[in-house]
Write a structure and sequence with these properties.
It contains six helices and 28 strands. It is about 20% helix and about 40% strand. Helix 1 packs antiparallel against helix 2. The chain is elongated, with a radius of gyration of 26 Å. Strand 6 and strand 7 form a beta hairpin. Belongs to the WD repeat LIS1/nudF family. Pfam families: LisH_PAC1, WD40. Its main location: cytoplasm.
């Protein structure tokens, strides 16, 4: 039986080779192989024959297997290096509570876009990631499985930003086609509204925390506020003298931070549109600016030697007190948003800083750069504690996972994923959580998912 099976395998292989040679137009080799393998009656006009395309399938399977083996070997080497490090031995007993920090290789590499990735963001309740690209499309992925769920088309030029509202019912995108579009996630991502008003490329768009308004930044040098329900522009903020690259609201929605080609970042009062502080110190275009979450305040104060906030300074304990900015001058700066003082400059990247994310533990700041790496900075001492070779080209976007987890039914998920270590939550606590997944996007047209 084994001998018979071997003959069958040989015959199938010969026919698959003949099929390949014929499709490749190698007629002399095709005729010679037919004679040498006694397949003079072989016909290639049967598209359903099992050997059609078999050689190519086997070859690509081998390549995929080789890549998987190389990824596993790289991960194994990384784990062995971690186990042999002196700090690992001393902290082995507390390893289960150590915050998750990304390490190569990535868990998933998502490919389908046909141009550089501009932005990635997680859905707040589903295992869904949205990505935007210069190819004018938005793609929706299941980040756990790595499967692409759908491609959304509607913009006619590069899609520059994407965001979900806090409940995940709506998605918003903005584009160089001068428009902002709202998409209904519960209805097959139907385009429910298109907002017109900016006079140049729209660089950035975000929902306010209550989900009732949008804030957008544009190359027309303005920031606009929109009503989600009506689609009307209700406010326009002016002050920057050049292209406004980004705008982000604080967690309580009272403040906005923006960054611009004019080399400044501004803190805005959301209610009246006044500039409360202008942050000056970078020597090139600012690519990104974000508020620090309140759980980072203790580490930031220790880093800057600020001590406890003054007794009467209520804002120092509320969202919007500290800001991080990244610039084309290759530096990251940490600011006191109330006084405008630069608290620390982080130096280490070899190219433009394109994205910043605070770690959910409140202990680290992550940066992504055109030097193709992610760097992790300790907020207590200001040192770079880790560099991850992330992509084969510029890293353009980075975002941390989020989910609404709570109640007894989700307790196990909360324990495993929240804040990088095990935490117990009250059953009635259904607030948003940051979970252990990081996503990055690159000019190499791939998205990478980083998990423990």
């Amino acid at each position: 039986m084994s001998s018979l099976l071997s003959e069958r395998q040989k015959d199938e292989l010969h026919k698959s080779m003949l099929s390949y040679l014929h499709s490749a137009g190698l007629n002399d080799s095709y005729e010679a192989l037919k004679r040498e393998t006694d397949n003079t009656e072989f016909q290639v006009d049967n598209p359903k024959a099992r050997w059609i395309g078999l050689l190519e399938k086997k070859w690509t399977s081998v390549i995929r297997l080789q890549k998987k083996i190389m990824d596993l070997e790289s991960r194994n080497a990384s784990l062995l290096a971690e186990l042999s490090s002196p700090t690992r031995a001393s902290t082995a007993s507390s390893s289960s509570s150590a915050p998750f920090l990304p390490r190569a290789p990535a868990k998933q590499t998502l490919t389908s876009h046909r141009a550089p990735i501009t932005k990635v963001t997680f859905h707040p309740t589903w295992t869904v990631l949205a990505s935007t690209s210069e190819d004018s499309s938005i793609k929706i992925w299941d980040w756990e499985s790595g499967e692409m769920e759908r491609t959304i088309k509607g913009h006619t030029k590069s899609v520059n930003d994407v965001d979900f509202d806090s409940k995940g019912n709506l998605m918003v995108t903005c584009s160089s086609d001068l428009t902002i579009k709202l998409w209904d996630t519960s209805n097959e991502y139907t385009n429910s509204k298109t907002l017109h008003g900016h006079d140049h490329s729209v660089s950035s768009v975000r929902f306010t925390p209550d989900g009732e308004k949008l804030v957008s930044a544009s190359r027309d040098k303005t920031i606009k506020v929109w009503e989600v329900a009506s689609g009307y522009c209700v406010k326009t903020f002016t002050g920057h003298s050049e292209w406004v690259r980004g705008v982000v609201p604080s967690d309580d929605g009272k403040w906005l931070v923006s960054c611009s080609n004019d080399q400044t970042s501004r803190i805005w009062d959301f209610l009246n549109g006044e500039t409360k502080m202008e942050l000056r110190g970078h020597e090139h275009v600012l690519e990104c600016a974000i508020f620090a979450p309140t759980n980072c305040y203790a580490a930031i104060r220790e880093l800057a030697g600020l001590g406890n906030p003054p007794a009467g300074d209520s804002r120092a304990k509320l969202p919007g007190a500290f800001v991080a900015t990244g610039s084309r001058d290759k530096t990251i700066k940490l600011w006191d948003a109330i006084s405008g003082q630069c608290l620390r400059t982080f130096v280490g990247h070899d190219n433009w800083i394109r994205a910043l994310v605070f770690h959910p533990s409140g202990k680290y700041l992550l940066s992504a750069s055109d030097d193709k790496t992610i760097k992790i900075w300790d907020l207590v001492n200001g040192r770079c504690v880790k560099t991850v070779d992330a992509h084969g080209h510029f890293v353009t976007s980075m975002t941390w996972g989020r989910a609404l987890i709570g109640g007894s039914s989700s307790q196990n998920t909360t324990d495993n994923l929240t804040n990088g270590h095990t935490t117990k939550k009250k059953e009635e606590d259904n607030g948003p959580r940051r979970i252990n997944v990081l996503a990055t996007g690159s000019v190499d047209q791939t998205i990478k998912i980083w998990t423990p």
